[in-house]
Amino acid sequence: MADRGLRAPAWLEELVRTRRPAMPWRDVVRFAVVIPAPLAVAILLAGGITPGPELGAGVFATTGALAATLAPQPAGPLRGQLRRIGWAVSLGGVGLVVGHAAEDAGWISVLVIALMSAIAALISSINAALSLGGLQLLVYTSLASGLVTQLSIPAEVLFFFAGAAWATLGVLVQSRTEQLDPDRAAVGAVFTRIGDLLSAIGTDRIEDIRRELTEALNTGYDRVIHTRSHSAGRSRELAELAGVLNSAAPLVEAAVASARAGVAADSRDISAAAALATAITTRRPLPGERPPRVEDGPAQRRAVRHAIRLVWNVVGDPEERAQAAVPRPEVDRRVRARDLVDRTVGNADSRAFVVRLVLCMIVAEVARQQLPLERPYWVLLTVAIVLKPDFGSVFTRAVQRGAGTLLGVLLGSLLLTVVPRNGWLLVAMAVTAAALPWARAANFGLFSVFQTPLIILLLDLAVPGGAGLVGARLIDTLVGCAIVLVVGYLLWPQTWRAPLDDALRASAQALDRFVDAAFNGSPEELRRARRTSYRALTELQTQLQRRLAEPPPISTRAAAWYPVIVQLERTSDAVTEAVIAMRAGEPVPDPAQVAVLRKAIGQLEDDLVAHRPPDDAEIDADGVLALVAREVDTTRRMVRQTRPAGRSDAGDAPDARSPVGP
Questions:
Q1: Averaged over 62-69, what is the pLDDT?
Q2: How many distinct structural domains can be found in the chain?
Q3: How far apart are CA 250 and CA 170, in angstroms?
Q4: Span 111-146, pLDDT tens digits
Q5: Domain of 314?
Q6: 3-state secondary structure of 646
Q7: DSSP result, 331-400
Q8: Are 473 and 526 found together in one domain?
Q9: Is it the case that residue 89 has pLDDT exceeding 80?
Q10: 214 with 537: CB under 8 angstroms?
Q11: Is residue 540 within 8 Å of residue 568, measured between CB atoms?
Q12: 9 is a domain residue
């Protein structure tokens, strides 16, 4: 009991949680070389670190190199990395130009910042690349509004793009020396996770590994299928990889059904999954013959072997791969335009974020003009970086950035004190830059710890400030975090409402479509519906993890939903098990019973809205439908016993550590 009393609150533990990623040595070397290189050239041409146009050119070129180096997603496909770099650098350059219009105090500056904030917020909702570009638009608008140098505006932009071009060259060189194709590695990872799931049957690791399999499938489809609409030159290879992914659907279903039923897998199937992963990732031929057909034993084991043999044919035979290839999707321009409107001005969440970001940036701009701050544009920078829609919890990022900046300021202060203004300064910048790729994957606060001293060293060269620069950086950052927490977080009513209702309803709707496709649809419809259902569950888990790092009552309300989320996953697995049973010869259920089951799932959505009291009603179903009906009944009882806004009969949300429901 004493140990439990000394334990930190769960939300605080989640807030400071740090992942332990493998050290990305290739990225470490690239960051250490590419980022400080433009500054090194400028110092060499100037004959030392002396104020002048050469040093200003080096600072802006290094800034461009930093933006382009941080833009690519780690281990993403090259075309995706270049797209992210292009948007980040292009919109960053626009920000450098527009930001000078906000140099003078007054309402013109406020209007410029508000307009750029609205544009950045709207384009951020279109896709991940434009979201990053929107961030850079705000960052460099904020930077240009307060950073005065000896260079003209065209020169600043020119050297910024030159540094970005240098960093892009570094990305291209690294991609050409990579041993593995990221697209193939993403598809191969699916079969690795399938093998892991088959190996883990009968252990307590099943749930975690099944989620890893779902994440691998999501990543594979995102990288291979969704990005094909923008690709050229490799469309045939990508189409074949997409066909391999689609051919894996029966194997995924059979593996999930085996795991749910507790039917141990044949060791030959586990080895075959590993062989498929290796062949896809490395382009090597499959070893030997495919595993023989299984005529007896549990239906789940026979389904796994049958699916292994199907995928083996597709992977091992070029003609089979060509036949399985997925045609490149053609989307009508009107459909694209309608989708664009739906994601931006037509989306209530996007409109709400526009208002939130604009208000925070206006308050930050007013603070920049009115408060006696030495480097006030850092307030704008902090608000822009923290208040991003696709980086998780606003509260978490604000707190982590504040704490990380504090440690980074201490480190930057130490470097400014002990490192002489000569070549050793470049060494210090290279060391802090080298830590960025590892820290980015570990924790946002840790990333700030190493990013802060790098920026301090860089900006001190542009506008020397000495030790005062360090204190100004800390104060301005804390002011920016305070603005986000108050104006962008505490003052918004939806911050304190039940945080997972929308994601839960989306999962229930996806489950309904999955049930319909499983018992009434074609194999293609079933594959799409299953993928949609599990993707919705993945998003639900992501939303849960984000809310668990919020302070009470948000984290308490979110934790209360965890058993319901697990039960929804079990229900989707039950549908998959029913599909395998029907393929093994079990009778197809009566359409009337399927309609009753779907009606109950529809009522589950209503339960999430109305928060009805618990009851003992059960769905009348038999055959393969009975196991799905039992899981739906349990899910409905859990939902009715869970009060999302902490409004249970006793006044508090249930404890997520104790069972909910029967």
A1: 92
A2: 3
A3: 41
A4: 989 999 899 888 887 877 788 888 889 888 888 887
A5: 182-324
A6: coil
A7: --HHHHHHHHHHHTTT-HHHHHHHHHHHHHHHHHHHHHHHS--SSTHHHHHHHHHHS-TTSS-HHHHHHH
A8: no
A9: yes
A10: yes
A11: yes
A12: no
